[in-house]
Each structure stands twice: as C-alpha cells, then as structure tokens.
Design goal:
- It is a single chain.
- It is globular, with a radius of gyration of 23 Å.
- The protein folds into 2 domains: about 210 residues, Rossmann fold, CATH 3.40.50.300; about 60 residues, Alpha-Beta Plaits.
- The strands form 3 sheets. Strands 5-6-7-3-8-9 form a 6-stranded mixed beta sheet, sandwiched between helices. The protein has a 5-stranded antiparallel beta sheet with strand order 11-12-13-10-14, covered by helices on one side. A 3-stranded antiparallel beta sheet has the order 2-1-4, covered by helices on one side.
- It is about 35% helix and about 30% strand.
- It has about 300 residues and is an alpha/beta fold.
- Bound molecules: adenosine-5'-triphosphate.
- The site of adenosine-5'-triphosphate has 11 residues, from helix 1.
- Belongs to the ABC transporter superfamily.
- GO terms for molecular function: ATP binding; ATP hydrolysis activity.
Length: about 300
C-alpha cells in the first residue's frame, strides 16, 4: 500500500498553549486508521490541520501529494464529519443531500439514492432532519460527506451520542463502505474498544505527540511481553502456579500468565489429561490493555 497521508514534525500552539509537538504519522491508501487519545489530546486539531481549516505552526503534510493550504483541492478529494454535522434541520434528509450535491457540483444523479440505501435512510428521506434520531443524523452526515465520492474520509468522534446499537450500525456501515470503495478513513475517538474491530491501524496521541502507531498485531508484538490466559475449567488450582507458570483461581477456572502464546497448547494438553476445559481466552490483548502498556512505557 502507498502512503496516502504523510505528516512530519507538525506542531501547533493556541496562544501560549502548545497542543501538538513534532507530530509524525502516516496513513496508507485504503486503510481505516484510528487516531486515539484522551480528551483534549489534540485529535480534532490534527483533523482540522489536515483539512486546512487551521494552519500548523511547523512541519510538513502531504495528502495525496497536496498540501493542506491547497484547501479547494483537499476538499475535492476528502469528506469530513464533525460533531456539528452542518445539516439543515428544517429541510428533509433528501433535500439536504440534494442541496449539498448541487453545492459540491455532484453530477452523478444516482449517488444520493445509493447513499440513502446504503445508510438505510430511504424510509426517512422525506422527514425533516430535526425529527431524526442522533443515529439517523450521523448516517445522514456520513452520506453528505460521501456525496462526491471522496478518496479520504475524516471522522471526528463518529460514535458520540449514539447508543450501543447505533454505534455498531455506524461502524459496520463504515467498514462496509471502506471495503466496497477502498476509501481511506481516519477517525478520531477517545473510546478505544469501539474502534478496535474496524481499524487496520492505530495512532496514539498523548503528551502532544504521536507516541505509537501500528496495526494491532504490530502493537501486540511490541508490548505484550506476557500473555494472561483465562481458562474456564473444572480444575481447581491449589497452588499459585501451574506447570511453573503463575496462576490465579477464579470461580469457574483460572488465569495463567505465560511468556508467550506458544505455551498455551502445553498447558491445555496437561489440563485435558484429567479435566474438562470449556473455554480459553487471552485476557490482556485488547486495544485498551495495549494502550495502557504504551502509556506505562512513555511515562516511565
Ligand atoms: N481554536 C482554539 N483556540 C484555543 N484553544 C484551542 C482551540 N482549539 C483547540 N484548543 C485547545 O487545544 C487542546 C486540544 O483540543 P482538541 O479539541 O484538538 O482535543 P481532542 O483530542 O479532540 O479532545 P476531545 O476528545 O475532547 O474532543 C484543548 O486544550 C483545547 O482547549
């Protein structure tokens, strides 16, 4: 995959407050990248700089070979969804899309119909947007951002305000859209576990800079120095170790701490000689656990 976005040494201050310092990251074409960090870390600021809404104080940025200062060209190849979706509430969903399609010079008449179908808004297209649920508004805002078939989609906290069903729905639409069209998607959020299933890679923004970037597999390899395996079994450990590995009992089983995944089969073989095993799960390889490891390392 080729680099779609290349950010090098970007810094930004608002007055005397430095928000970004030497930010580096890359995004490959067709990837879904999660830009993750706590509240106030500067995620929105990064998105606004990439879009040319505000200017960086230092550093270089290339978006498909363009600089964010070429804002018209950037707008032509990208779409953005922010918290304030910029929809007209007194107009219907369809009228909103027709209005913005004309504004963006979208000539493909079938595009609105396609998006209404993709985001399951056909039945609601004639209702005023003011009567839409938060989830429907998000889906309409996504449709609006995708009217001109952008190559890159920027999403600022796309799941904010949604209930669990709404979150699942919006994220699965995004994944489907990415797979169907190959559109590169950058989304920022402070809710790590939500983005884990849909992102190909992650960039962690902390202490004003990107402290780590990589795919889940790359991050696991780098940060998971031990594996905690949760085993549901009828075996009840009497000791604090099992086959020499640290273990702890819980109601229907035990957790065992192993130096690597390789030892999982060793402990299972031994257990299955005399006991039943109902499930085996790695308990510490979720994105949140890895993120805590990254933070531990940088704050050391
Ligand atoms: N236009 C501005 N003028 C002054 N300060 C600003 C401006 N925009 C952002 N900031 C400050 O920059 C910091 C980073 O803000 P930003 O919105 O980029 O963070 P964020 O990571 O997106 O946060 P959140 O997760 O809460 O949305 C905050 O301290 C914020 O107050």
């Amino acid at each position: 995959m080729v680099e779609m976005i290349e950010v090098r040494g970007v810094s930004k201050s608002f007055g005397s407050q430095q928000v970004l310092k030497d930010v580096d990251f890359q995004v490959k074409a067709g990837e879904i990248v999660g830009l993750l960090g706590p509240n106030g870390a500067g995620k929105t600021t990064v998105i606004r700089i990439l879009n040319g809404v505000i200017k960086a104080d230092a550093g270089t940025i290339s978006i498909m070979g363009l600089s964010p200062t070429q804002s018209d060209d950037i707008r032509a190849i990208s779409g953005i969804v922010t918290e304030s979706a910029g929809l007209y509430h007194q107009m219907s969903g369809l009228e909103n899309l027709e209005f913005f399609a004309e504004l963006y010079g979208v000539e493909d008449n079938a595009q609105i119909k396609r998006l209404l179908e993709l985001f399951e808004l056909v039945d609601h297209q004639h209702k005023p947007v003011g009567t839409y649920s938060t989830g429907m508004k998000k889906r309409l805002a996504l449709s609006k951002a995708l009217l001109h078939n952008p190559k890159i989609l920027f999403l600022d906290e796309p799941t904010n305000g949604l209930d669990p069903d709404g979150i699942k729905m919006v994220l699965s639409y995004l994944k489907t859209y990415n797979q169907q069209t190959g559109t590169t998607i950058i989304l920022c959020s402070h809710v790590l576990h939500q983005l884990e299933p849909i992102c190909d890679s992650f960039a962690f923004l902390e202490n004003k800079t990107i402290v780590e970037q990589g795919s889940k597999q790359e991050l696991e390899q780098k940060y998971l120095t031990e594996i905690v395996v949760s085993v549901s079994t009828d075996y009840v450990p009497q000791e604090k170790t099992f086959l020499g590995f640290r273990c702890e009992k819980f109601e229907n089983g035990m957790t065992i701490t192993l130096p690597s995944k390789e030892e999982i089969s060793t402990i299972l073989k031994e257990l299955l000689k005399h006991h039943r095993v109902y499930s085996v799960e790695i308990a510490n390889n979720d994105l949140e656990s890895i993120y805590f490891k990254v933070r531990e390392k940088i704050n050391r």
